[in-house]
Amino acid sequence: MGTAGARATRLRAVVAAARRKPYRHAIGVTLLVVVLGGLFLTSYGLALGRPKPHHVDGVISGDPATARGLVAHLERNLGGELRLRRVPSAAAARQEMLQQHAYAGLVLGGRRPRMLVASATGASVARLLNQAAEQIEDTTGPPLIVEDVRPLSPKDPQGLVLFYAMLAATIAGFILTFQLRANASGLSLRAWLGFVIAGVAVGGLTIAIIAGPVLGALGDRVPILWAILSTQMSIAALVNSTNLALLGGWAILPTWLLFVIVGNAASGGAVAPPLLPPVYAFVGRWLPSGATVEALRNVVYFPHHDTSAYAVLAAWLVAAIASLAIVTRVWGKSPI
């Protein structure tokens, strides 16, 4: 009975300790880290770990009947997910590629059929198309020639600096507000906002200069790169600030879910949208991370492309500012 009584006493002491505020918070933080880590691995494993084609848009010029075997082999090698639509000429096929309306272009006629790819649109898709072309053993005609109509910069041959620049701006944005709360909590709201603006401006410029002139991966259009990266950093900082005002230290949960677990995985930066699960491909285009990757890609490789990505970023920025204003001015809550 003595031993059992001692055990019961120790158990009651452990339960009582767990009910105290510091212990409750420590348990909550530990569980939160475990859950976020598990969600991170699950999301990235599903989205990026096993990329496979899902509805790859393509165009074809010429008469498919003249190379029926080649087309069938190519479609089979892409798991039946290549969607070819007719265009009137090889020039039209090239134009569709340069306007990012298609990931593949099949040009028939002439001495040898050609497969048009654009690494800058999606390096992962271009690699898949190259592999599919290499696997074709078409005995009814000449081999398929692969032509890259918009290759990546030799200083970014995998096309990943775009993704890393977006990722750096995202993480810097919400870390800025976390650290201001942790180490400068005595600031007034006006002073806090001033430091956020300064941090976003300097941080975005630094990332733009490093990714552009220093590494040579994103060209030399520093002002527009600065604007895009600072916008992404601002959105991350403002959304996290709203979460801090509403949830305090637990703001990491919605911020991490939105920007890292879902946003970065669905951005199309590491794996192009046609190779992502359909849900990720759809969601990614409407999230700031995906819009930032697309905007950076357009600046570097497709300067005359449409501006839908800028509209998405502008909408997120306005919504983030409005949300923080409502939380601080109307509800009287503070992110610091």
Keywords:
336 residues, alpha/beta, 5-stranded mixed beta sheet, 5 strands, 63% helix
What does this structure look like?
With 336 residues, this protein is α/β, with parallel strands linked by helices. 63% of the residues lie in helices and 7% in strands. The protein has a five-stranded mixed β-sheet, sandwiched between helices. Strand 4, helix 5 and strand 5 form a beta-alpha-beta unit. Helix 8 packs antiparallel against helix 9. The model has no long low-confidence stretch (mean pLDDT 88).
Could you write a compact summary of the structure shown?
By secondary structure, the chain is of the alpha/beta class. It has helices at 2-19, 21-49, 68-77, 90-98, 123-135, 161-183, 189-214, 222-247, 252-264, 278-284, 288-301, 308-330; strands spanning 56-61, 82-86, 104-107, 114-117, 145-148. It is globular and about 85 Å long.
Order of strands, widest sheet: 2-1-3-4-5
User: How many distinct helices?
Assistant: 12
Number of DSSP E strands: 5
Please give the largest β-sheet.
5 strands, mixed
Order of helices and strands: HHEHEHEEHEHHHHHHH
End-to-end separation in angstroms reads 53 Å
Shape: globular
In the predicted model, the low-confidence regions spanning at least 5 consecutive residues are none
Please describe the topology of this protein.
Blueprint: H1 2-19, H2 21-49, E1 56-61, H3 68-77, E2 82-86, H4 90-98, E3 104-107, E4 114-117, H5 123-135, E5 145-148, H6 161-183, H7 189-214, H8 222-247, H9 252-264, H10 278-284, H11 288-301, H12 308-330
Parallel strand pairs: 1-2, 1-3, 4-5
Antiparallel strand pairs: 3-4
